[in-house]
Amino acid sequence: MKRIVISENMDAPAVAVLARDFDVDYRPALVEDAAELAKALALADAWIVRNRTQVRGAPLAAASRLRVVGRLGVGLDNIDLEACAARGVEVIPATGANAESVAEYVLAMSMILLRGAAYLSTSAVASGRWPRQMLSQGREVWGKTAGLVGFGSIGRVTARKARAMGLRVVAFDPAIAADSPVWSEHGVEPCGLDDLLAISDVVSLHLPLVESTRRLIDDSRIARMKAGAVLVNSARGGIVDEAALARALREGRLAGAALDVFEEEPLAAASVLADAPNLVLTPHIAGVTLESNERVSSLVADRVAAFLSR
């Protein structure tokens, strides 16, 4: 019987579906134990991971029988794609399955950040204070411009939702020609990156982490952003220069930012982001909801099973 190792959390019904036809080793904490992971992988035909498991180096070398990797998500920077390709190992991401969740996160954070310090008011009001004047300077998303840096499947879902909320949407994606029908189909204006930064009230990142995008949003590009703009990164850590962002927030050059992803995860307690103002930090959960976890797990389970059944 073919063996599937699942080294991070997966929706239980999807695991049960796989267990009907395969020998499934499901241990969500396996990612934490390198020795046990290597031992488990020695007999694995398939390996299912999220973003914390590193499919490279010693763990990948230990998986001598491996035929397929299922990724419970869409980012592939934790997978050595070249090494997998060289060995003929198929990589199956959950493309599109968490797009709704990420898009909702982007818009929720955009509203929170544009509204200013409203999300910080609960303790003040509960303690008897009434900071109404201070918290009455927030802004609406209606009529604002959202700039999407990257316009793949998640960017397109975000654009649809943003337009429904009354935002003008512009996007930058060098992989899509300016005359592509994709733009008009989604009611989105193609835009150069520098122009996008200059006109957008909300800048949201939707790019993979590759060498050309590493620290793409640095001091110089933050300096080009519109006064009062906010930044949301739900894509990949490393696209934003965290030190540059912290400086911009402390100096008031950005109105706010929300980061769901970081160069190093978990974020260190002594991070340069510590105590930066108007900053919302979440632990890589933009694409994770009860519903998206079901969709992602089901999709990957189905595709991995189909691959192993060839």
**CATH architecture descriptor name of the largest domain:** 3-Layer(aba) Sandwich
CATH fold topology of the largest domain: Rossmann fold
Number of domains: 2
- Whole-Å distance between the termini? 14 Å
Strand order of the largest sheet: 8-7-6-9-10-11-12
Shape, principal axes of CA atoms? globular
Q: What is the percentage of strand-forming residues?
A: 15-25%
- Report the top-level CATH class of the largest domain: Alpha Beta
List the uncertain runs. Answer: none
Overall helicity? 25-40%
Order of helices and strands: EHEHEHEHEHHEHEHEHEHEHEEH
Kindly state the number of beta strands.
12
Biggest sheet details: 7 strands, parallel
Q: Give the rounded overall mean pLDDT.
A: 95
Structural class: alpha/beta
Keywords:
310 residues; alpha/beta; Rossmann fold; 2 domains; 7-stranded parallel beta sheet; 5-stranded parallel beta sheet
Describe this structure in words.
This protein has 310 residues and is α/β, with parallel strands linked by helices. The protein folds into two domains: 3-97 and 290-308, NAD(P)-binding Rossmann-like Domain (Rossmann fold, 3-Layer(aba) Sandwich), CATH 3.40.50.720; 99-281, Rossmann fold (3-Layer(aba) Sandwich), CATH 3.40.50. Helix content is 35%, strand content 15%. It contains twelve helices and twelve strands. The strands form two sheets. A seven-stranded parallel sheet has the order 8-7-6-9-10-11-12, sandwiched between helices. Strands 2-1-3-4-5 form a five-stranded parallel sheet, sandwiched between helices. Helix 5 packs across helix 7.
